[in-house]
Amino acid sequence: MMRCRRVLAFTQTSTIWRCMANKSKDGVAANELKLKIEGAGTISDLFAIHARGSEYDSDVSVAATWMQLSKLSQGGESASQDQISRLVDATERMAAIERLSSEALANTAYGVVQAMQKRDKQTMRVLDALACASAARIDQFNSHCIAKLALAFATAGHRSPALFDTLVRASAANIDQFSPAELAKTARAFAQARHPSPQLFDALARASTAKIHQFDPDLLAHLARAFVQARHSSPELFDTLARACDAKMDHFKPRNLSSAALAFSSARLSSPVLFDAIARKSVSCIDQFHKRDLADTALAFANAGHSSPALFEALARRSIASIDQFSPAELAKTARAFARARQPSPELFDTLARASAAKINHFNPQDLSNIAWAFVKAGHNSSALFDALASASAAKAVDFDPQAISKTAWAFAKAGHSSPALFDAISRASAAKVSHFNPQDLSNLAWAFAKAGHASPALFDALANASAIRIDEFKPQGISNTAWAFAKAGHCSPALFDAFERASEAKIEQFDPQELADTAWAFAKAGHQSPALFDTLANASVAKLDDFNQQDISMTAWAFATAGHRSPELFDALARACAAQIDQLDTQHLSNTAWAFAKAGHRSPVLFDTLAHASAAIIDQFEPQALSMTAWAFATAGHRSPELFDALARACAAQIDQL
After folding, report:
1. Distance between CA 307 and CA 606 in Å, rounded?
2. CB under 8 Å to 649, separation ≥6 — which residues?
3. Beta carbons within 8 Å of 255's beta carbon, 6+ residues apart
4. What's the 3-state SS for 29-85?
5. Which residues form the RNA-editing substrate-binding complex 6 protein domain (predicted)?
6. Domain ranges of the chain
7. Per residue in 15-49, pLDDT tens?
């Protein structure tokens, strides 16, 4: 009996040792195969390894092959369809029978995404298999595999809610084990995948804050960008990030500087100390900046509203020197940044104009509209560039989205650059897309065509219908600008003006002085009767009259006089406001105001005395129409002013041929 037990024990021990020996041999073989795969210098060599008998029979061979394939594919060589099919079939088979370890699953997913640049059916098929296998074994994943797997699927743009839900739970459960690199990588993955996970981002924020001293400049910038991209608010984390960036600023490279600046500007969190530090560091190493860093840094500071003249001078100098290397997108971005930051740089804009005109046929619709907007916003005139922009934009108008359409039209109208062919092309492109325009785009487009004086009845009919449908979404500025545009264009649309009336009544307290004046002017110019609205406008204007400028005053007076709407209280208030600002009134406003009070039959001797004195002092600057309006106004009002009429007589005699 004892002998039997000894034999049995010996047999069991021998079996265990044989299993361990076999496992050791398998491990050695797997490692040898992995080394062979990693040593393959070409894709042909890589697949030849398996052709010689080493099939995809282990997680090591599958994962290593995909990883090596991803590296070799970057050299321009590509695998045959048959080779890819065999590898995909083997991967699916290994995933289905759970032969892939957590590390192999993560590496395989990463390799697939890097190697298969085309997201075809085979790629989706193998990713589906890997997603199912990974979700089922997620508890076996460590922090490194979690981060790598999440980033692989996010990079592929492969929607797999079930997998990402399991990754959320696994990440939250193991968050304290994550290294700084894994924290940043996971945040980036979930932000890129647009998978809602506020609890995970809260956990990432806490863990990152605790380990922030271990983050290098790259990771600090990546983490900030990820939270911004995910639109996850975390003020405490960003305060910590700002201090960490400031402390490690000496180690920041140009790419780190531009990335950090972009992240903090996008987060809309004020951090003047950090931006000052970034500015100083950027100026000190500006000659090392890549063209992309130049454009990104300029745009970040512009968006943050952080003034830094020294930085913008350095950015302008470096951009001018590197301008020939700029892509169309970088040219447009740089122009937009300097315009938004209100940083005058004539030499830079001249250089941008020449470079952009030379590459104009390579600009996409968004870049075309952005650079047109930028030059107008910066107040930099460039007829040659706008001629090139007009030609290129007209040719591509059908591809413009609503925002690009309205922005381009606005820019050309604001610049006063005549381009009938472009406006015709925009009109045709807009008519087909007008239902997709938002209220601001509708308003801007109507304003542009009216300002440019370009008739387009069909477009205005389409704009009227679309605006009336969405009138409740219009802000006061949109209401007043659109009403102004239709009145200026002389396009009759009673239904739209009825809608404007209702919307204005409902939002009148939100209107600023210019919006009140423009709305009154538009209704008067269009001849659209609306006594109730004019009463509302009068009350609102009286309440805000201290904030009216000279143009608001004269426009409001003109509008009420033209509409024939009596409002003694408003005209008394306008008279006082006008008298107080009389030194700021130009010839047009002087004559318009006098005309309006005379037309309205509102007596205001003090105002007319003030207008007479101011007009006589600058009578030589009056144009013929202003002279005749002023004479008519004083005569109609019955206000005697010998000094003014003597001045009017001399001025009229001097301009008699033009009257």
Report:
1. 46
2. none
3. 221, 290, 293
4. HHHHHHHHHHCCCCHHHHHHHHHCCCCCCCHHHHHHHHHHHHHHHCCCCCCCHHHHH
5. 210-451
6. 344-432, 438-539, 548-658
7. 433 443 344 444 555 677 778 888 888 888 888 88
Range of weakest confidence among 107-116, 363-372, 436-445 = 107-116
Amino acid (one-letter) located at 110: Y
Question: Residue 387 is encoded by which pair of tokens?
Answer: 């001629």
Fill in the amino acid letter for 649.
A
Cβ distance 148 to 179 under 8 Å? no
Contact predicate 556/541, CB 8 Å:
yes
- What gap in Å lies between CA 396 and CA 391, rounded to an integer? 9
| Contact predicate 495/468, CB 8 Å | yes
Q: How far apart are CA 445 and CA 458, in angstroms?
A: 13
pTM for the model stands at 0.81
Spell out the SS3 assignment of 192-248. HHCCCCHHHHHHHHHHHHHCHHHCCHHHHHHHHHHHHHCCCCCHHHHHHHHHHHHHC
Q: What is the pLDDT of residues 184-194, one digit of tens each?
A: 999 999 999 99
Long-range CB contacts (< 8 A, 24+ apart) of 39-42? 40/68, 40/72, 41/72, 42/72, 42/77
Which residue in 323, 298, 322, 299 sits closest to 311, CA to CA? 298
Q: Do the Cβ atoms of 183 and 149 come closer than 8 Å?
A: no
In eight-state DSSP terms, residue 80 is: -
